[in-house]
Amino acid sequence: MDSSASDSSATSSNRHEYRLIISNLAHDVSRKDLEDHLRKVGEIVYYTKKGAIVGFSTPSAMKKAFKELNGSQLKGKHIQLTEYTDRSRSRIRSTRARGLSLSSPHR
């Protein structure tokens, strides 16, 4: 029984192997607002008021979401998408205590 549980969690983590960081959110954007904006393209795997991480099952789904949503408007602000990398992961972990700054490193 334990092996099926671990297989299930492994499948779940693989489901979001490809990720984008969303930043430049308006201060009043709720998780539900963001879910509604992203409903057709990806699933939120991490959320704060300052940004989020959205997961995708394939690289093509991630690229499609990037093309469709990068610069799109949500509650009056143009959201910014950046590919999530191991470097992003370290930055997110180190800034979590300070409120999670998700600004794009390529300005």
UniProtKB/TrEMBL annotation:
<protein>
    <submittedName>
        <fullName>(Mediterranean fruit fly) hypothetical protein</fullName>
    </submittedName>
</protein>
<dbReference type="InterPro" id="IPR000504">
    <property type="entry name" value="RRM_dom"/>
</dbReference>
<dbReference type="GO" id="GO:0005634">
    <property type="term" value="C:nucleus"/>
</dbReference>
<dbReference type="InterPro" id="IPR012677">
    <property type="entry name" value="Nucleotide-bd_a/b_plait_sf"/>
</dbReference>
<keyword id="KW-0677">Repeat</keyword>
<dbReference type="GO" id="GO:0003729">
    <property type="term" value="F:mRNA binding"/>
</dbReference>
<keyword id="KW-0507">mRNA processing</keyword>
<feature type="region of interest" description="Disordered">
    <location>
        <begin position="80"/>
        <end position="107"/>
    </location>
</feature>
<dbReference type="Pfam" id="PF00076">
    <property type="entry name" value="RRM_1"/>
</dbReference>
<keyword id="KW-0539">Nucleus</keyword>
<dbReference type="GO" id="GO:0005737">
    <property type="term" value="C:cytoplasm"/>
</dbReference>
<keyword id="KW-0694">RNA-binding</keyword>
<dbReference type="InterPro" id="IPR050374">
    <property type="entry name" value="RRT5_SRSF_SR"/>
</dbReference>
<dbReference type="GO" id="GO:0006397">
    <property type="term" value="P:mRNA processing"/>
</dbReference>
<dbReference type="InterPro" id="IPR035979">
    <property type="entry name" value="RBD_domain_sf"/>
</dbReference>
<feature type="domain" description="RRM">
    <location>
        <begin position="18"/>
        <end position="86"/>
    </location>
</feature>
